[in-house]
Design goal:
Strand content: 15-25%
CATH class: Alpha Beta
CATH architecture: 3-Layer(aba) Sandwich
Strand order of the largest sheet: 3-2-1-4-5-7-6
Bound molecules: S-adenosylmethionine
Number of strands: 7
CATH superfamily: Vaccinia Virus protein VP39
Helix content: 40-55%
Largest sheet: 7 strands, mixed
């Protein structure tokens, strides 16, 4: 159960739990069954949406992936022939080590880099990115509205934010995310979609839309644009 959402103590506890969970999971994360059921479908949808943005804008892309985990999305995107640079950011230092190992392991120059940081304190200048992605990570953030506002500041005109997280607004999603996953991960918050829509509106995003996918473990991509 969530305590007062503004409480600093709760906020710190939520982040400490997430860091502990993912520091210890980093080495085996890519072999988890959840990869098949949750993470891979998310990378597929993110890649499709990024391809759509590229078709629409036809300019080089600088992408920030928040809560990047082991850098799998960066690794997929930088294998494409698009003009793309990816920065992955994660609160778990162990995840960043894995991501670096995966993308720089061969010694070949990579178009991806990783930084260990908190989604609430994004160490980048305003308007630094064309696209920001965040998949299966947002439910760990104690101050979700604030993170969405900060992401809006980081995007260039014409930029896009693609957020994917568990869709808990139908029975299957409620059982999966609010009952089972919340019990396992503890102190997480899968926001109902109207609340996410509100975060996007309040931050200034336009053309907000959603794309539901993955019937048995339902996920939802919420997509918002920054005006040109
Ligand atoms: C389930 S993994 C998702 C990884 C990847 N995006 C994917 O879809 O497979 C969640 C990630 O969010 C990160 N995370 C949790 N809280 C965070 C925060 N406050 N700031 C940045 N990353 C955070 C965790 O360390 C973890 O690597």
């Amino acid at each position: 159960m969530l305590a007062d959402p503004s409480s600093k103590e709760r906020s710190e506890e939520m982040k400490a739990l997430a860091r502990e969970e993912f520091d210890s999971w980093a080495g085996s994360y890519d072999r988890s069954l959840l990869h098949v059921f949750l993470f891979r479908p998310s990378y597929r949808v993110l890649t499709e949406e990024i391809a759509r943005w590229y078709q629409e804008h036809n300019r080089p892309m600088r992408v920030l992936d928040i809560g990047c985990g082991t850098g799998e999305l960066a690794s997929i995107l930088t294998r494409e022939t698009w003009p793309i640079q990816v920065v992955g950011l994660d609160y778990s230092p162990a995840m960043c080590v894995e991501a670096n190992r995966k993308t720089h392991g061969s010694g070949a120059p990579s178009r991806a880099g990783f930084v260990a940081a908190d989604s609430e304190f994004l160490p980048f200048a305003p308007q630094s990115f064309d696209i920001v992605t965040c998949s299966n990570s947002f439910h760990h953030y104690p101050n979700q509205a604030d993170v969405v506002r900060k992401i809006h500041h980081l995007l260039k005109p014409g930029g896009r934010f693609i957020l994917i997280d568990g869709f808990r607004d139908n029975v299957v999603g409620w059982v999966t995310f609010d009952v089972v996953i919340a019990r396992v991960e503890k102190n997480v918050h899968h926001a109902p979609w109207p609340q996410i829509d509100g975060f996007f509106r309040e931050a200034g995003f336009a053309n907000i839309r959603r794309r539901k996918f993955n019937f048995w473990m339902p996920l939802c991509a919420t997509i918002g644009d920054v005006g040109e």
